[in-house]
Amino acid sequence: MRFMLIHRVQEDDPASWEPNPELIERMNGFIEKLVANGALLAADGVQQAGSVVRRRGAEVKSIDGPFAEAKEVVGGFMIISAKDLAEATALAEEYIVCFAGIDEISVEVRRVVEPEEIEPYLSK
Question: How many C-beta atoms lie closer than 10 Å to residue 107's C-beta?
Answer without folding.
Answer: 21
